[in-house]
Predict the 3D structure of the following.
Amino acid sequence: MTPDYVLMNPPYDGSLHLKILGTIIRLGVSQCVNLSPIRWLQDPLAPYKNGHDFETFINVRKHLPTLDIIDVKDAQVIFNARIPIDLGIYNITKRECVPFTLHTDLINRLTKFNSKSPCPLDFNKKNGWRVRMPNVTCSSAANTGIKETTLKTLLCFDGLHNGKPWYSFFSKNQNTKETPEITCSISFHTEAEANNFIMSLTLDLIRYYTQKTVISVDYIKDLQVFWLGDTVNPRTGLQGYLSDWTEQDLESLFCVNEHELAEIKDTLAPFSG
């Protein structure tokens, strides 16, 4: 006997909750209200990852007309637990619909732009000016448990920073490589270009992109770094990092509207000083 209605809070272990939802759909249940994480729906880089839940469980998205989001701050209060992720109240129906997505037009534009000319990462190189990255780090906003994701950089010349080996500036563990060659870096012709790149990562639009795309350990390094190296700056007319980038340059380049500026502000608000 198949029930008409189901109310559930399944285990969150890996993709188990999505497999259970898939079973509910196959059984032909008229409606299911489900509480579980939504991280799998939040990753705009999902189309570029092999075997990502976003595509694997497309059938769940086809039976999900609406989703109410409980952000991490509210989830922690409601459930009296240090839940590190947003939760969703899923409304699963028997009727099929357009596959559900949480990706906004802005993040889709940025992701599409970055995927066309991803960051040119080098591995195990040390020659010339290089920025060591990406080393994904997270820091908690005060009293919220929400984490801001940043890309930790280190400017080096021939593998040295201020005369010391690049690896001496990073914590050591069993996987640490203490070699002159930098494990992961980006090459620049001059120190000025490298610094312009580093400063670009502090701009709100790029911080927004980083925050939206680094949502799990399953990240793609070259797409994680927002790269402007092949782009002409609309203000200076110079390519890439031959000149500095400003907030206004990026807003002009990507035609960011007032609604999208508010979206960026809301995303970064927990981390504002």
Remarks:
- The chain has two domains: 5-103, 107-271.
- Residues 105-116 form the longest helix (12 residues).
- The two ends are 56 Å apart (CA to CA).
